[in-house]
Design a protein that fits this description.
The chain is elongated. The longest helix is centred in the C-terminal third of the chain and has 26 residues. By secondary structure, the protein is mainly alpha-helical.
């Protein structure tokens, strides 16, 4: 069980990181699988949160550098999606980063935060709260379902 726990946590961290950057998939199902198989929720939530937050930091950095080629080719964010993220960011403000975990618009929001040079400490706080909160809510939901 310890071997499964070790590689499951590492795999979860990498999946969460990649899900926040270049790959169009989610890490939520893997998190729930690791929690069910290991019986632990703390380490999996921490690993998924840290991985996903680090992935968002990559997006922030790419936005900060403003390299459109990297944004379009590496992150696969098209102009329409980027424009929509900018519009939402400007409309709802920096607190929209609490929703950086959402599919489709979440990754572009973190890029836009970099493009608009959002204060790093505020970016990190809001993205961390949103992403860790989402993982905690999932684990809590799993707990309620399996009672």
């Amino acid at each position: 069980m310890e071997l499964l726990s070790h590689y499951g946590i590492l795999g979860l961290f990498l999946a969460a990181f990649l899900a926040a950057t270049i790959l169009p998939f989610s890490s939520e199902a893997l998190l729930l699988l690791v929690v069910r198989q290991t019986g632990d929720w703390v380490l999996p939530v921490v690993a998924a949160s840290v991985g996903n937050i680090l992935g968002s930091l990559v997006n922030y950095w790419l936005g900060l550098k403003g390299n459109k080629i990297l944004l379009h080719q590496w992150l696969r964010i098209d102009e329409k999606t980027l424009h929509k993220a900018k519009r939402n960011f400007n409309r709802y403000g920096v607190y929209s980063l609490l929703f950086a975990w959402l599919p489709v618009v979440g990754d572009p929001l973190t890029v836009v935060a970099g493009l608009l040079k959002t204060r790093f400490s505020l970016f990190l706080l809001l993205v961390s709260l949103g992403k860790a909160g989402r993982y905690l809510a999932l684990v809590w939901g799993l707990h309620l379902i399996t009672l």
